[in-house]
Structure formats: structure tokens, C-alpha cells
Design a protein that fits this description.
It comes from Castilleja foliolosa. Helices cover about 10% and strands about 35% of the residues. It has about 400 residues and is mainly β. β21 and β22 form a beta hairpin.
Amino acid sequence: MGSLVKRGWATGFSLLRRISDIKSTRNCADRNLIARMMMSTAVNSSPSSGIMSPPWLMLPPVFEEGGDMIYKFYNLSEDKEESFRKKRSEQMADAATAKFVGSSHGWLALFNQRNNHLFLYNPITNRQIKLPPIETLPDPHINLAPNGRSFVRKLILSSSPDDDDECIAMMIFGPERRLAFCHPVTALNGLLLANIIIILEMKACFRVDDLECWDLTDSLSPRIHLSWDLDCSDLTRYPKRASYSLVPITQLNLVYVEEYNQLFLVVRCVMERMGPDGLGVSPIYYGKNKGWDNSFPYQTTWFDASKIDFAFEKPQCLEGSLDGLAMFIGLNHSIAMSLTTKSKLNSNCIYYTDSNDLPIPPSSFYGGHDIGIFDYTNRTISPCYDFPLDIKCIKRIMPAPMWFTPCQH
């Protein structure tokens, strides 16, 4: 994992020059190629040494008087709380002021906006790894604000650094949502991104708004396959985002099933301003001094899921079932898995956490609260842990809970 620290973030300017040629790859041959890649990977790939367990819900950490930090989690599969103490002497100087920007393969990703420092932390093994700061990237005039600061929207890993010395770290950062890879993959700049998934076995990564597959087999010259435009699929029936709309807005999530090497596209509908009756509420503007009324929180209303098969022209809608899987969706990348008979989780359900990555007004009583369990068969929502769904009982939760997937070794 030392290569992550020594080699820094890289950029792929040659890839940028080829953006104009990407359109030529949008054809049936590319879809068939990607389908063969995924089928071949599912057959030939060997199991990872780190076995993926059902995710835990990461709760806000507790700080004690002596400066020790206690990381707290709710283990949904076993219906119990887990906690790990990190002594003050063991903490990085950045830890107290850092923000959680991701969770992947048993590691947490943290970013300190004061100095643009990034680091990974495994709360179970107590191991930490410092990553190169953002100012090491080219184009600082784009990546950094006038005050020298930047921000990271999401950082994920292709695998656990404990298992793989060639682990890929990838982040979405800055006002233009640029993408940067940390060794050994070169970085791509300039594309607006919504969701990223890395599949290490086939060295591929997927993104949506258009559904694209990036072949990372050749790290010096990654190839982009554009499969199809989602605007041409059945997703056009969902409303587009409109500021302060009374119609739920839609968010697209790519969900990966590692054990079956299968991708799903999940549409999440969120009411931007939810009233106690479950209906949208029109906004009120109080003027320049007081701004907008923040009396009504946003709330998830429902989900739709489709299976992605690159041999077809568009995603295949799922009706009444998630193929027996449990899905986990939130700010970090989304995953799905089949469940054992001992698990207290429910199949054909979507477990979700708050996915809002925009600043919450300091005066608002909500934020981080949009957490629940969506039964895909019955189309109903139930509470998760002790976080209420009732608008009158909602409280602000900071930092917002996210999914943490422990790895068994």
C-alpha cells in the first residue's frame, strides 16, 4: 500500500485529448464486449482473501474528556452495537477536524478541508494511511478555491489495502466533480460524475449519468466504452430535478453485487420539502436577511431498480423483487449481497442512508436524517436502528451515518 503514498495522484491528459473520439464507441459491439468481460470475470476470478460481511451502520463518533475517540457502529445483521476506541495519542493531527468522505472495503476515508489532507483509517485494525494532498494534482487554479482549499465528495477503494498492494484509490473532488486516481491508474479530469464503482478483477469502472464503462486494464491508456444514454431508456418517465419542486427528485445509484459480478441501476426518489402529511410543501422566502424557510426536511419516498445487462439496449426493470438480494445505498458507493439464514437483515429490501452532499443551513433541524428500510416487494418504508421516519421526531445527525463494510481476514 506504500505505493499509494509515494506515487501520488496522477492525471491523464492524453485521455482528455481523446474525449471527442468517444462517441464512436457507442454501439452494440461495445455492449457485447463489456458483457463478455463481466461473464469472463465472474467465471475466472478467484475469491478475495477479504470476505465481505454485511455492512454496519456507522453512527456519529463519541469524544471523551481525555481526547479519546470512540467509533460506533450498528451491526444490522446481528442486531447489536459495535464500538472501537482510538486513543488520543494514536490519532493523526488531522483527525479531530476531518470529515468522513467515504467508506470502502473496511476502511474510512477522511478529508481535512483546512489543509487538504486525505487519509484512510481502519477502525478495526487501527491502521491508518496518509494519501497525497489535493494540491499535488495539476491545475490548482481549478481544483482549489482562492483561499487554497478544496473539497472531496467521495473517495472509494478497489479493494482493501491489507489484501492488495496495487489497491486503487479514486476520488471525486472539487467544484467540477473531477475524478482522480491514486496509483497505479491514471486520472481523468473534466467529466461531471454522479456515481463511481470500481471492479478490480476486470480493472473496470462504471459511471452514470450516461451509463459508461471505463476499461482500466491498461493503466497508461484507459479505454472508455459508452454503452447507452439513460435519457433514451425508461428512466425518462422520472421527473428531472427542479429547484424546490413539489415533485420528488430522482437520484441514480449504481449498485454492485460482488459475489455475482452483477450491476444494478437504482432510482431513488426524494421529496425536497416533506410535510407531516407526506406531501410536498411549497417554499417560503422571508427576504435577504432570513432567507428561505427551513422548516421542512427532505425525505426519501420510494425506489425503483433495474438490472444492467450490457447485451441489451437498456436496463431490465425489476418488479416486486430484488432477486433475493439486500441492497445498501448512501453517500458512499452502493452494494448488494445475498443473505445467510442467520442474518437478521431482510432480502428484497433497500437499506438506505442520507445521500445529500450539499451544505445544510446551520439553522435547520435536519440533515443526515434520511435513513430507513424500503421493502421492495410491499413498497413500504420502515425505520432503521432508532432513527425515526416521523417528520415531527426528526433530528439533525452529524456527521451523517454511512455504510461501513468490515472485512474478515
